[in-house]
Amino acid sequence: MTDKTTTAKAHTNIALIKYWGKKDKILNLPTTSSLSLTLDEFYTETMVTAGKEDTLLINNMMQDPTRIHNFLDFLREEIEDFGPLTVVSKNTVPTAAGLASSASSFAALTAAVARYQNWDLSLTDLSRLARRGSGSATRSFFPGFAVWHEGHDNQSSFAEALPATDLPIALVVCEIAGTVKKVSSSDGMLRAMTSPKYSEWVEQSHVQFTAMQEAIANQDLHKIGELAEENALAMHELNITATDRRFTYFNQMTLDVLDFVKALRAEGFLAYATIDAGPNVKIITNQNQAETIKDKLQEKFRKLRLQIATPGPGISFED
Length: 319
Fold this sequence. Notes:
Ribosomal Protein S5, domain 2, Alpha-Beta Plaits, eight-stranded mixed beta sheet, four-stranded antiparallel beta sheet, 14 strands, globular
């Protein structure tokens, strides 16, 4: 069986209602429910095969396998024991730069191991397992819009797809920095939770989570964008108001692009910003305006790397 391989492909997701803080570090239970859009253009393909020890290669480069090894050990204890694995990933997402690389990576890894071991698990089951590697990975098993229920224990914290929609949403992704961020998401969340504004953000996020589902059902792109921008900017305000080592993921280019988004709206464009744990800005718009917005950004910020992203599929396998 040493030559057996299994490959899974998972797409990254962008949270429109964010996950930013844990109420249970062991189970990776979030303080809020979140809602995301899976993206077609960014993904991770992960192949697993037998090895002499747990090893990890990303884009043909050997990586520190500690985080992957710990997650595989969790799967060995949770489901069934299995031997060492060689994990080979092809990642189209800049790692640890705030473009949700860990979401697609851990979703693909979880799915690949489950298929490799012939585990008969539902997508819901897989989302619970992947949560222990990366919280946002729970949502990358599903196409289009997905929700991750915060839950109160392992069983109740899982992700599921929202009803399919042909909403013509698009994101203009502004890759301001593709380097590894100085403050990891895990550390950033811990610091953010010390902000005096944190409990207020949690309460508001619960309201926005419900409102976002209504906006999607109503196919109201303006409301979707408005809610996403409010939620994201309030999340980043937690970082700069933290009492424990306040910080920011923003740089000057982030601020300049945010100002440009406001200017686009003033011109009558559908344009709202969302930002994960990093400096990169994603502009929510519709598919008719995305190319024009991209062109305007390129004209204003000539060195900015830009890409248009559209709704993507759920988990898939190469047999």
